[in-house]
Amino acid sequence: MTLDEIDKIKEEGLRECDAVKTLPELEAVRIKYIGRNGFLPQIMKGLKDVSPDERSEYGRIANEFKNRVGSALDLKKAELAAGGAANGESTFDYSMPGIWRGLGAKHPISSIIEETIRIFGRLGFTVAEGPDVETGYHNFEALNTPAHHPSLDNTDTFWLETGELLRTQTSPVQIRVMEGRKPPVRIITPGRCYRRDTTDATHSANFHQVEGLYVDRNVSLADLKGTLAYFAREMMGPGVDVRFRPHFFPFTEPSVEADFTCHVCGGKGCRVCKNSGWIEIAGAGMVDPRVFKKVGYDSEEFTGYAFGMGIERIAMIKYGINDIRFLYENDARFLQQFV
Ligand code: DAH
User: What mean pLDDT is predicted for residues 174-203?
Assistant: First the structure.
């Protein structure tokens, strides 16, 4: 192809481009001039037949062809699209590739809370909530925790200028629920808690607990154990058992700490359970009659059990997370694993 011929085709292309009235027509012009079987590839192929001293001029003309026709097509396309939009036509370009936004994942804390609600829901427990800003009465006094108890110290609890505090546990929700209704009561209360803890691999000043409370006639410690065993198996897997160790909490009598069989080694002993075969999961016990007295329940007629456990702890054990801080940093590389 001679340089003159290329120039002629270029002028022809620019004219055709100018005359076009619709996007499909424009597309036909594009294919004809710069498409894979159009003029441009032919022109490029011609380069190898040109004598060496004419080659650079040929290259320049070929490039000009490509640029001029290319930008005329782009301009016309924008013009037609804008005109279409002005006439109310869709300018959506269905040939454009989509934008990949990536899939989000549920945060492990949300997953554990939702799973916990589902498991206890199957046993008839409903969800109750209370405020994060609590009164000293609900967080401590009504839970039979005396004013001289170390957990009331400024070094442990975030006290506010109003005299209220950021709840240190979800247990005050027990009090609020019992104040508001008569037995039977069967609730769980997931929520945030706050303590003046220095952050490290297993502590955070802001964490989550889920509290459980069941009050009715003839509720016993055996019911508590059966309920926690059901939860253990549903949450951690079949074969997981529960054991109670005597403990002390101001608001329960007797009080226990509940351990689950280590789901990693099945109780044989491993690094996760520090070779004991058991993992401490919950504080629990039978509601102390003094707590019932505060909310006006007759402890001769009713008994109840309560328990409280850390959501982060369950998440860490279940998913093998060895540092609680991973749960708060929102590092996408960490969260990606839960998609
Ligand atoms: N509130 C306790 C804590 O923060 C956990 C707890 C223990 C809750 C015994 C209870 C219970 O309801 O009965 O460590």
Answer: 96
